[in-house]
Amino acid sequence: MSSRKSKSNSLIHAECLSQVQRILRERFCHQSPHSNLFGVQVQYKHLSELLKRTALHGESNSVLIIGPRGSGKTMLINHALKELMEIEEVSENVLQVHLNGLLQINDKIALKEITRQLNLENVVGDKVFGSFAENLSFLLEALKKGDRTSSCPVIFILDEFDLFAHHKNQTLLYNLFDISQSAQTPIAVIGLTCRLDILELLEKRVKSRFSHRQIHLMNSFGFPQYVKIFKEQLSLPAEFPDKLFAEKWNENVQYLSEDRSVQEVLQKHFSISKNLRSLHMLLMLTLNRVTASHPFMTAIDLMEASQLCSMDSKANIVHGLSVLEICLIIAMKHLNDIYEEEPFNFQMVYNEFQKFVQRKAHSVYNFEKPVVMKAFEHLQQLELIKPMERTSGNSQREYQLMKLLLDNTQIMNALQKYPNCPTDVRQWATSSLSWL
Amino acid sequence: MAHYPTRLKTRKTYSWVGRPLWDRKLHYQTYREMCVKTEGCSTEIHIQIGQFVLIEGDDDENPYVAKLLELFEDDSDPPHKKRARVQWFVRFCEVPACKRHLLGRKPGAQEIFWYDYPACDNNINAETIIGLVRVIPLAPKDVVPTNLKNEKTLFVKLSWNEKKFRPLSSELFAELNKPQESAAKCQKPVGAKSESAESPSWTPAEHVAKRIESRHSTSKSRQTPTRPLTPRARKRLELGSLGNPQMSQQTSRASLDSPGRMKRKVAFSEITSPSKRSQPDKLQTLSPALKAPEKTRETGLCYTEDDEASPKRCIILRTRIPASKTIDIKEERILTPIRGGQKSSVMPSVILKPENIKKRDAKETEAQNEATSTPRHIRRKSSVLSMNRIRQQLRFLGHSKSDQEEKGILPAAEISESSSDEEEAFTPPVPKRTPRTVSRNLRSSLKSSLHTPTKMPKKSLKPKTPRCATPQIRSRSLAAQEPASVLEEARLRLHVSAVPESLPCREQEFQDIYNFVESKLLDRTGGCMYISGVPGTGKTATVHEVMRCLQQAAQANDVPPFQYIEVNGMKLTEPHQVYVQILQKLTGQKATANHAAELLAKRFCTRGSPQETTVLLVDELDLLWTHKQDIMYNLFDWPTHKEARLVVLTIANTMDLPERIMLNRVSSRLGLTRMSFQPYTYSQLQQILRSRLKQLKAFEDDAIQLVARKVAALSGDARRCLDICRRATEICEFSQQKPDSPGLVTIAHSMEAVDEMFSSSYITAIKNSSVLEQSFLRAILAEFRRSGLEEATFQQIYSQHVALCRMEGLSYPTVSETMAVCSHLGSCRLLLVEPSRNDLLLRVRLNVSQDDVLYALKEE
Fold first, then answer.
1. Within the 484-503 window of chain B, which residues sit less than 8 Å (CB to CB) from chain A?
2. Labelling A343: which of B117, B231, B728, B779 has CA 20 to 30 A away?
3. How far is C-alpha B321 from the chain's CA centre?
4. pLDDT value of residue B20
5. Which sign, positive or negative, has the C-alpha torsion A46, A49, A51, A57?
6. Residue A128 CB neighbour total at 10 angstroms
7. What is the pLDDT of residue B356?
8. What is the secondary structure of B232-273 as a DSSP string?
């Protein structure tokens, strides 16, 4: 009886949990404009007022939204646009053009994209396929035609704005800013970038035409707010179908946020990065540990996820190496110690390895040179060592100069966790003189 | 069919009414109104811009119909001085017989068609105008009334472009619907000035009036199209055409009621204590007694003739619109005199006005004499020419007389103008302008009408194929909101795009450039000029202003006509495209860059047909630099040819551009006519801001001064200055508690705006970075201090970082984490880092000064 009951319970749980995972994963992966904004109210107001003025009054503007990656620039603009489009008289009166510096890598492509997004090709059929020069004059002509009161305002959103600044002559930016500063079609140019030195990238004429409005997003929240965000991000919404489960889940989240070990984990995470995306990553890993048999998150889940997050990637690679490869790395480490970070070649490493093998012949099998060479090349493929200059076909591989891309502490830490490491090897690692 | 009197029966004298519009420097003469006096009867018709006129042709039965767009004077053609620009309409009988079937129905007897054929010459001799006619636009769904008795009312429903009939576009329809509105608009500037001076005193009244105004226009536009169909309206029409339709009688009637009208207006404006005096007046007009036929007839006429007198319009309206509206009208009627009274007592500008008008009059007479022209077809042209010859002989008879009469009209004209000014002054979107801008206003309308193939070939060739139709961003369905508060108004005026009516602090430069180009035009030679200056010092704006003035001068025939072309190096994809652009703007041809260069060289370098001077503005010259410098060479070489008659104005930022980047042979051809625009000083910036804001009290004086000083100290860029002020108004608005009572922009607000725009964000960025990022920065500083270099590899910094973390009790940072931190700082450009594939060996540098980093880290 009881077993059946628990079974049905777990069934319900499984259903709920799949929903929970769907909701939360969506929240972590997509920057939906429905989620709340954290601590950017002032900036948000500035931006939305500016957009409204463009939409309603036909005032041209240009603004840059600057903030480190993951600080919510795109979310901010999406929020503002969503709110703007909800105003009835605006929604059919505003045109939007979204450009991304990673997609529109030069002005030619960008112009075509603008023409396409403005649906201008409908006006003149095949015009969008014309030459670059034609496109430019066509678009400029089109934008010149309008005036403040009668034309539809156009909102240009330039993601990765700094990349547009690398286009030749900055023609696109010059023209966009020029339009925004002259009595033509009202446009708002909104650039998103993570570079703080963005203004130095702009050419002086372009810079003069830019209005110098900057909205900075700085992640300026403290730890208590971070915990609050953590709580909000994990909590289930009120419209979750199974109220009882949602209540339980939210209670658990509340309990978690007060747990000391959880706070420690969060504190560590917070001190590394204030980026909300990294928090999402952590929560995602934690969420993945939730199953029907383990329906609620625990502090241990979070700690393990945190460990996964902060794992050193290279140490992980070292764990998977063979003993021979480990020996080669140790030899390289000694060479680095002896020659003070000077580059080495295969022959030097091989010699060092030979010395060790001769002393401690019983612990490591004496491999032939081609085998050692193979292991050396494997290390190079794993990018644990890096050639100093490009490999040219004719140079002898044994004498190519290499550098080790592992830090001493990394090697020592990796060795400690390395399974079944021969004691002699471990000793050799700690002291270059141990073979004497 | 109606029988219209023409020259055979009566002689007419034509004279301008009102002053010519007068520019600051130039003698550009356009007129608002023309007076036609018919010999033999002591009456005269006043024809105003925007009204519909009959123009004599070879068929007396059916004179041509047109809408008057502009009256101006043309000196270049001595025998005929008064000229007019019109928009033609065609009668059905003027449509070629082979195409008449395209209409697909039987045309109404009085139906005419909007003539949408740009190739047709719309520049005519003003003295071919016979008189006024009434044209009523019909909405597509309306039926053309066929059996009207009044032959002087015509209906326009479709447009004809020599290919097919089309319904009138909605804008066109609206425009036709209220021709007088547009005419009145042109006059606003005079009044605008006075309004801004006294604005605080009558704001409430203004609001009421504005509301009424808008209701006016809407009710009017709503009603007009259906008017011919309503029985009442038709009755009025019949009344209006009572008796016979002979022109002479019509004119007599017009002139009969026009004195009366003037008198009433005079009386109106003389009322200084309006609340008492105007009350009875209003009552009087409201009384049904005045709705007598005589009255309505007058209003009917009045509608086409003169809508400027606002009281008049009220009366018309009242007869037309339902009773519920009368209250509003009453209000306005009370208000109008108040304003009029105040104005005349307070404002000196009103006193100046009569003189103004008279001056224009005088000019106009000359101008109109000049105007002969070629109306649309050759047959028209020939008939007009012959007519002119006859009129020439007759003219001297009536000339002196008309002059006298003009003087008599003056007071009335003044008043009607001022009253219309008042009306117009209430539309806040239009920036207030001084009289000088009137001409600009006009010029723009003129320009649009100028785009006929004969005058400007570059434009005419555009509509060659439908594919070349000029693209346009679709227009908004809802009109843009107008500024509601003082701050919003200020923001509008401070926007860089707002065209100032003059360019303060650039008078000398303006004069120099103007003189240079003018002298070249007058000498019919060519030349080059190089203009330099840092961005935002008004180079392009000044040149544009010069060109605007010169174009007006050319219109007034003070300088020979010229063609103005503008290219911008930044708006080209590639330097050689400049040839393509020049050629296209010059002749409308399209060609590849090489071919265009050849064509241009041929045009400018071979002695051939005499042509008008070309003025070429090359903005952002430095971008036309190529390795061989052939473009610059050509641009500067062409003017040296005698036949080219090319004036090249070049603009760039650096003063020594010719010496730095140009080959000797190029810079030699550029010559030594240089001009350099100095960055604005703080007092100049202050003056610019003040002139933009004018009377608008939105800023504290100190706030303006602060911005001006800050900008002058940094760059002297006027754009920056305006942007900061604009931002300051926003900050002021945000900080305001009550939105309805915005205060002044104070020093604090502008200080905040300045800080926002100029302050570097590095320090805040460092302060807000995470603990690990901060300690990484510390590690960098420690490593730099240890090595004594400004650069370190990641590995070195990492060891420092680990040590630091250990000291501060932070958890041990792995290489991956530290690398993430490093690249994060690198993406913000707090650090300069190599691509991360170098891994441990990547070199790191600080992008901020070490002191800044220390300062930012110490703060907490």
1. 488, 491-492, 495-499
2. B779
3. 34
4. 65
5. negative
6. 21
7. 44
8. HHHHHHHHHT-S---HHHHHHHHHHHHHHHHHHHHHHHH-SS
Q: Which two tokens stand for residue B724?
A: 């900061």
B695 and B666 within one domain = no
What tokens were used for B782? 């420690």
Two tokens, residue B85: 């620009």
d(CA B496, CA B666): 35
Among B467, B480, B824, beta carbon nearest to A273: B824
The Cβ of residue B42 has, within 10 Å, a number of other Cβ atoms equal to 11
Chain A interface, mutation test: which of B448, B475, B476, most A Cβ atoms within 10 Å? B476
CA B211/CA A335 separation, integer angstroms: 89
Which strands sit side by side in the sheet containing B44-48, from one edge to the other?
Answer: B12-17, B33-38, B44-48
**Is B673 in contact with B515 (CB distance < 8 Å)?**
no
Look at B123 and A86; give whichever has higher pLDDT: A86
Report chain B's terminal Cα–Cα distance, integer Å: 95
pLDDT band at B479 (very low <50, low <70, confident <90, very high): low
Q: Rounded to whole angstroms, how far apart are CA atoms B791 and B780?
A: 9
Q: How many domains does chain B have?
A: 4
Compute how many other C-beta atoms are within 10 angstroms of the C-beta atom of residue A258: 11
At position B394, the amino acid (one-letter code) is: L
- Dmax over Cα atoms in chain A, in whole Å? 90
Q: What is the dihedral of CA B2, B6, B9, B12, to 10 degrees?
A: 130
Q: How many CA atoms lie within 13 A of B388 on its CB side?
A: 28
pTM: 0.64
Beta bridge partners of B36: B14, B45
| Residue A163, both tokens | 């990349």
- The beta-carbon contacts of B830-837 under 8 Å, at least 24 apart in sequence, are B830/A196, B830/B762, B830/B765, B830/B766, B830/B769, B830/B777, B831/B780
In this structure, the answer to whether residues B48 and B65 fall within a common structural domain is: yes
State residue B747 phi and psi, 5-degree precision: -60, -40
Instruction: Write out residues 577-636 of B within 8 Å (CB-CB) of A.
Output: 577, 580-581, 620, 623
Distance CA B16, CA B27 (A): 16
CB contact under 8 A, B580 and A148: no
Q: How far is CA B792 from CA A332, B325, B656, B780, B815, in A?
A: 22, 82, 40, 8, 16
Indicate whether A294 and A395 sit together in one domain.
no
Q: Of B730, B758, B786, which one is at a domain's C-terminal end?
A: B758
Judge whether B71 lies within some domain. yes
B530 and B575 assigned to the same domain: yes
Is residue A3 one of the residues assigned to a domain? no
pLDDT tens for A74-130 read: 889 988 998 888 888 777 888 899 999 999 998 888 888 888 888 776 555 554 566
Taking contacts as CB-CB distances below 8 angstroms, the residues of chain B near A405 are 839-841
B389, part of any domain: no
How close does chain B come to A88, measured CA to CA in Å? Answer: 11
Token output for B121: 């010459």
> In CATH, what number is assigned to the domain containing residue B839?
1.10.10.10
The answer to whether B477 contacts A92, with C-beta atoms less than 8 Å apart, is: yes
B476 reaches A (C-beta below 8 A): yes
E strand or H helix that includes residue B55:
strand B52-55
DSSP A29-67: HS--TTSPP-S-HHHHHHHHHHHHIIIII---EEEEEE-
Distances (CA, A) of B725 to A59, A211, A252: 15, 11, 52
Chain A contact for B839, CB < 8 A? yes
Spatial separation of the C-alpha atoms in residues B410 and B354, rounded to whole Å = 7
* Band of residue A423 on the pLDDT scale cut at 50, 70, 90: confident
The better pLDDT of the pair B205, B561 is held by: B561
ipTM of the complex: 0.90
